[in-house]
Amino acid sequence: MKNHWFTFFSGRILVKAQGDGLELLINKLARSNVFLWKLKKKTNKELIFYISLYDLHTLRKIAREFDCQISFMRGEGMPFLWKRTKKNSGFVLGLLLSFILVLFLSNVTWGIEIEGANPETEYKIRKELDAIGVKVGALHFLNNDPKKIQKELSNRIENLTWIGVNLKGTTFHFKVVQKTEPELKDEKSPGHLVAKKKAIISHMFVEKGKALVKINQYVEKGQLLVSGTIGTEEKEVNVPAEGEVWGLTWYNSKVEFPLESSFQVYSGKEKRVHSLTVGKLNIPVWGFGKIDFKDYDIEKEDHSLHFLGWELPVKYIEKTLRDKEEIQRSLTNKEAKEAAKELARKDLRINIPEDATLDKEYILHEEVENGKVKLSINFQVVENIAEEKAIIQGD
């Protein structure tokens, strides 16, 4: 018997044979390599069986040699389905177009809902969403995925503590947690200003309180800078000391930088590949041909397709292949030294307050060892060293 799926694609016919000499007919068909299956004998003079569409001509030719009548009960398989489809092409085309239209509309953004934001923040969110292409009427698979949208909004809008992004059907839902500003206290508790680290005073500005240090004076950590106790001995008053005391502080950094190094850069060439995945089956759509890049990075974006709110087991995949190449760099001792100093400065900027400034730098030790320049650098920084300390009863 021929394979069921093979006969489905090639076509098969259910045949009824009536008359005398049916056994002779069956034997002649078998000798002529005509395959028959599901052979059933209804009566002594009636048989039904299946043959492939390919053997129809042979059956007709052989049936003329015998005293029997052949009739075709029905045709099955792809050729007959195609014939019926062509006969009802208008209906099939309409059904196909309706499916495509519903599929298209199911993957378009029709709503954007924002929860937990005040009107001002909601306006900012909608403005930024419009800038990155998330708006009513936009196709889902042309937008970034929800995680990237969440990251974009968090980076662009400052007063967000957290924002959740969820796509349900054709609507984007955003849940917002805004930053809450601490309530400003009308009155501060009485206190002093003390040094939070050792330093040499460079300049200061005292708004309230009594300064106890002078310019160019060396102070230790915890030393009293501005007293919150003012007035005379007969009548002392405790107030919250206010002001800024700037001092020269010191930071040490040990860095090393290689004389020979290699790193990868993008050449600017790229190739985009588009495909559809159905389960484990990958169907290329665009970007055919072999990849000419010797070495490359792949950036992949998955976009799910939806139909009437359900997520289909079909994904639209967009891959960006970026050509990269390895660059060898050789530096002189002087160039490596400057690169190491810049690396140390960048590390310093991370560790000092935002309002602090770099004043001077001193190289304490320098050596070249194992193909690397090694430096020990002392940085002199000007920063506000004052911090508040509450006045405790009995101080």
Automatic annotation (TrEMBL):
Keyword set, alphabetical order: Membrane, Transmembrane, Transmembrane helix
InterPro entries: YqfD
TM stretches of this protein: 91-112
Any Pfam family matching the protein: YqfD
Top-level taxonomic group: Bacteria
Protein name: Stage IV sporulation YqfD
Gene (UniProt): yqfD
